[in-house]
Design goal:
Number of helices: 15
Bound molecules: uridine 5'-triphosphate
Oligomer: single chain
Structural class: alpha+beta
Strand order of the largest sheet: 4-3-2-10-14-11-17
Largest sheet: 7 strands, mixed
CATH superfamily of the largest domain: Spore Coat Polysaccharide Biosynthesis Protein SpsA, Chain A
CATH topology of the largest domain: Spore Coat Polysaccharide Biosynthesis Protein SpsA, Chain A
Number of strands: 19
């Protein structure tokens, strides 16, 4: 039996023969591509994911309780503890034990702009891209800790080439090329509600990136983990490309993670209200996990403590520290520990006649792994509270909440707060304002510059007069 016959027979047996329905119209190269793609598909994880689709999650409600948190000072955190954590984190950074991992393989469907989200022009004055802004922060981190901090950039098949091209044509945004590592996540097929594969083109099965949790497998499979360990790195600071407020390589977070002996840590913010749609970090027996907003029972969502404050307030903001040996352990058992989760999506696949659909309602499932599923495997998790207004304002939607407008607004509000804390004059509210984060990461450095320095600081502080008038 030839390869083609073998693959087609297997697909027929699985009720997936329809992916070859345009076979006779394809030229030999296109036929080869389709068979090659089909033969790479692993049905076992798909079957497992689909058997759970539409069923309520298996959660032992009795075992759920609030998670212990390293609280902010205004919520009872101990200043001495925080200072010890900062010093520990700085020591680890100076010792070159920390790398930074950004997941940038998403499809940005809600934002709706073509190309990688990391190239989205976010700078309020310069229109600097998210990647360029994050590179500034990394340059500053490197200068502060006197050590290279490698940047691991996870792409996906659709974002890989344009991301690499943008870095190379922008001189790696001022970073040494040898400190930037690209690695590409895998894809998984999408399916209709009957579990049938979909076609993107006559010679291509519809696939999408396997979720941010795919980072754990791709880190191992690309050799990036080997390379990090070869460099003496045993901790990765994880974040998502779409949050311009991220405190890259935050020493307090890294320090708490190390001091508490955690394998994976998690930053959280206070939920705005019981109803806010955000996953909450909770204790589940002796594990720590995340209850998605779709999973939390009403009684828990509304539960309050004796002071009337929300009991389950710790909203996940997708920033983690992970030990490299922990990542290897999770990757080794990924099918059990990082399952694919189905979510209902509008999928622009071909219809039976080969015409591309543009569905106005979900017509199938995309399947994704979630990085936070790894929390359940960690022997110890450290949860650190941060201020939302200082650290989290993601770009998700084209307009409204979590959009470029709100992210720019929140970024500028931080810059204005830094100026005010440093006792320096801020430009009028109608001016846009941007600070070069390769030089300045907070009020202390602005204060050190002083008004004199500020006047001569050139690109450090840019304004666009009347931009918001
Ligand atoms: P989101 O879940 O917000 O997805 O990803 P998205 O692709 O940015 O936007 P939508 O949902 O299509 O509108 C959160 C972070 O995880 C990354 C994204 O790039 C973003 O940084 N991500 C997501 C990946 O790297 N790969 C994936 O498969 C999914």
């Amino acid at each position: 039996m030839s390869d083609v016959q073998r693959v087609r027979a297997e697909f027929r047996q699985r009720g997936q023969e329809h992916v070859f329905r345009f076979w006779e119209d394809l030229d030999p190269d296109a036929q080869d591509r389709l068979v090659a793609q089909a033969s790479r598909i692993d049905f076992a994880p798909l079957d497992r994911a689909l058997s759970s689709a539409g069923k309520p999650p298996q959660i032992d409600v009795e075992a759920i309780g609030p998670v212990p948190v390293e609280a902010l000072l205004e919520h009872g955190g101990d200043p001495a503890d925080r200072e010890t954590a900062r010093q520990r984190g700085e020591d680890l950074l100076r010792a070159g034990r920390v790398g930074v991992l950004v997941v940038a393989g998403g499809q940005a469907t809600r934002l709706g702009v073509p190309g990688p989200k990391g190239l989205f022009p976010l700078g309020p004055v310069t229109s600097r891209s998210l990647f360029a802004q994050q590179a500034q922060k990394l340059r500053h981190l490197r200068d502060r800790c006197g050590h290279a901090v490698p940047w691991l950039v996870m792409t996906s098949p659709a974002t890989d080439a344009p991301t690499r091209e943008a870095f190379s044509s922008n001189d790696y945004f001022g970073l040494p090329a040898e400190d930037v590592f690209f690695f590409c996540q895998s894809s998984v097929p999408s399916v209709d509600f009957q579990g049938r594969l979909l076609l993107e083109r006559a010679d291509r099965i519809f696939e999408s990136p396997d979720g941010h949790g795919g980072a754990i497998l791709a880190l191992r499979d690309s050799g990036a983990l080997d390379e990090m360990e070869r460099r003496g790195i045993d901790l990765l600071f994880y974040y998502q490309v779409d949050n311009p407020l991220v405190h890259l390589g935050d020493p307090v977070f890294i320090g708490f993670h190390a001091l508490r002996g955690a394998e994976m840590s998690c930053k959280v913010v206070r939920k705005r209200s019981a109803e806010e749609n955000v996953g909450v970090v909770v204790q589940i027996g002796d594990q720590v996990g995340i209850l998605e907003y779709t999973e939390i029972a009403d009684a828990q969502r509304e539960a309050r403590d004796a002071q009337g404050a929300l009991l389950y307030w710790a909203g996940n903001v997708a920033m983690h520290v992970l030990n490299t040996d922990f990542l290897r352990r999770v990757a080794a058992d990924a099918e059990a520990l990082l399952p694919l989760h189905p979510s209902r999506k509008k999928i622009p696949a071909l219809d039976a006649s080969g015409t591309p659909l543009s569905p106005d309602a979900p017509n199938g499932y995309k399947l994704e792994r979630f990085i936070f599923d790894a929390l359940l495997t960690a022997r110890r998790v450290c949860v650190v509270e941060v201020r939302r207004e200082e650290e989290y304002s993601p770009v998700k939607n084209a307009e409204g909440p979590d959009s470029p407008a709100t992210a720019r607004r929140d970024l500028e509000a931080n810059y204005r707060a830094w100026l005010s804390e440093a006792g320096l004059p801020a430009p009028p509210e109608r001016d846009s304002l941007e600070i070069d984060e390769s030089r300045i990461s907070g009020p202390e450095e602005l204060r050190a510059l002083g008004v004199e320095g500020l006047a001569n600081a050139g690109e450090v502080l840019l304004t666009s007069p009347g931009a918001k008038a």
